[in-house]
Specification:
Elements lengths: L1 E2 L4 H20 L4 H21 L1 E2 L10 E3 L4 E11 L5 E10 L6 E3 L4 E9 L11 H4 L2 E8 L4 E8 L5 E4 L6 E2 L4 E6 L2 E7 L4 E2 L6 E2 L5 E4 L1
Antiparallel strand pairs: 1-2, 3-16, 4-5, 4-15, 5-13, 6-12, 7-8, 7-11, 8-9, 9-13, 10-12, 14-16
Helix pairs in contact: 1-2
């Protein structure tokens, strides 16, 4: 297992603060029944922070006729909507909720050309709230896929997420399962796909980024 580059400064900062707190308590000759639980809690907290930035070793699925899950998490929305910002037409929205325990790396769901990559400031509604898709801080990435369809995918910050990292650049070519971003401390990714694609998941399914087939031609 590797750690993501986005976590380096945070892990170092947390490690430093926890070390200082525990050394300070040690210098005060804090009784063991207080010091030991704090030391254990500090270690567990550090492990939790490290787990946010893990990149597990896995075998990725490549399919030029399919959309692969861009993130780990739970399917919380499958519905027909009208996407007003870029597609401006009826499409199917599929949303993946990422809990703090999920892997937070985001991967391109298919290969194609990036037509738009836009960041929006916004609110901090919980990521499972339907309002989060249009009102929260988010990035919107519009892609012309190699199978000729336009799709849109969004990174959405939730109540806990402190920062969205987006590597997608307008005018560049994206490859399926390559990293396009990272959401720190949990959130949600929305997919907007053509109505004529066959959906291969259902509500409450658990999906894995780079492995689970979301939809196909």
């Amino acid at each position: 297992m590797k750690l993501h580059k986005e976590g380096a400064s945070i892990i170092i900062a947390v490690l430093g603060v926890l070390a200082l707190v525990n050394l300070f308590l040690l210098q005060l000759r804090t009784p063991g029944f207080i010091l030991y639980p704090i030391a254990v809690a500090s270690f567990i907290f550090l492990l939790c922070i490290i787990s946010f930035f893990r990149i597990p070793k896995r075998t990725y699925v490549y399919d030029s006729q399919a959309i692969i899950a861009p993130a780990d998490g739970k399917i919380v929305v499958i519905e027909e909507v009208v996407e007003e910002e870029f597609l401006k037409s009826p499409c199917r929205q599929i949303s993946i909720f990422m809990s703090p325990s999920n892997v937070h790396v985001n991967r391109y769901p298919c290969s194609g050309e990036i037509l738009e990559s836009v960041h929006h400031d916004g609110a901090k509604y919980p990521a499972f709230n339907p309002k989060s898709s249009t009102l929260n801080e988010r990035t919107s990435i519009l892609m012309k896929t190699e199978f000729g369809k336009e799709i849109l995918f969004r990174q959405i910050a939730g109540a806990m997420a402190r920062r969205i990292v987006n590597y997608a650049k307008k005018g560049t070519q994206a490859k399926q399962n390559e990293e396009f971003g990272f959401i720190k401390f949990g959130s949600r990714v929305d997919l907007f796909i053509p109505l004529d694609m066959e959906v291969c998941v259902k509500l409450c399914d658990r999906v894995r980024g780079g492995q689970t087939v979301i939809a196909k031609i």
